[in-house]
Amino acid sequence: MRMSRYFLPVLKENPSEAQIVSHRLMLRAGLIKQSAAGIYSWLPMGFKILRKLENIVHEEQARAGHLAMLMPTIQSADLWHESGRYDAFGDEMLRLKDRGGREMLFTPTAEELITDIFRSHVSSYKDLPLTLYQIQWKFRDEVRPRFGVMRGREFLMKDGYNFDLTKEDALHSYNRHLVTYLRTYERMGLQAIPMRADSGAMGGDNTHEFLVLAETGESEVFYDSAVTDLSFGDREIDYGSVADCAAVMEEFTTKYARTDETHDETLFNAVPEERRRRARGIEVGQIFYFGTKYSEAMGATVQGPDGKSTAVHMGSHGIGVSRLLGAIIEASHDEKGIIWPEGVTPFHAGIVNLKQGDAEADAACDALYSALELLGLDPLYDDRKERAGGKFASMDLIGLPWRITVGPRGLKNGVVELTCRRTGDSEELPPEAAVQKLAQIYAGIA
Predict the structure, then answer these.
(1) Taking all residues of the chain, what is their mean pLDDT, rounded to a whole number?
(2) Is this model's pTM higher than 0.90 or not?
(3) Which of 42, 161, 191, 300 to pair with 27, CA 20 to 30 A apart?
(4) Is 342 contained in some domain?
């Protein structure tokens, strides 16, 4: 993409309404524009990153054998009355009526709807286990929407639901989801720590939140610093293996890590003092096992091996896809702007032409652009007639991981400058070598 043809409305000044870094940088970098309190339009670059995050989630869900679907954003209230949650959910639910006076609601979550789909089409234990999920827009009418996409009213969420015959099977599904989430977050360049949490309105006994440590986090967390040494890495997991998934669960959840709602001072004090940490965290996902809470209330049963009708065991698993952009920026930025991890960057590299209109510089940039595209990479070429300082500032602000700088002086020596956004380190390379280095870097990105 050439910047002269792209819609990227960057701002030079910090927006007065932005209270935290991610909100400020998303507005300044032209990723979003506020439409109403807690509701945003996603501009081309923001939308592009959103789709990259969504694709990673889809790929990891597919790897685990989970099936994608799509449910409506507007639900009938009848199902919520049936489950008993219509009144219990509170004022965050946006309630409305259609022209026939029927009670409707804008989906805040979809346990009732998915349970109704299941009970309508599944009647035998032979069809289990089953995990269905969607990535869909949700709405919760927050009292005080703030912090941009971190605490918005409309948000893009992955919500998945497992149906199993027994508690043991459902707990394997729980463990399997924990594994998929660990891999998902690491691919996005995030360390998200699974922490024992409170189930809230969702119900159930088992739940873990995945939190990214950040000073601006809304949750107070307590943890053993040893959990930050854990990494999923490139290990191979058999998702059908109870033992494999349970081993990962044990490795990542036995060290003390809890949100403030479940914090236990006695257990925390048993952690060696030098490893005790108290910090803030940003929630980016949560998994639940809630047993037969919904299946019993809504008649979601199957015929078991003994011929008897039995309520299925269920769980749900959410990832805040849109809030992930904010979390990544909170965890990865500096005073100049965003620093995107390679796995989620909107463009793989930026090309800066220091002398637009110079025949040799223009030709070199065009050649680099074409060479990167031929290798399957997606460059952003700043071909604007803008001062070099302005071009560098824009590239730093939008945070592409790598920048190739092309100028007449370097070309006389047969080199361009390749710069790493994260470290600021630069090296001079022949154009072909710069392209090959970028190809090697991205070849290692899942």
Answers:
(1) 94
(2) yes
(3) 191
(4) no
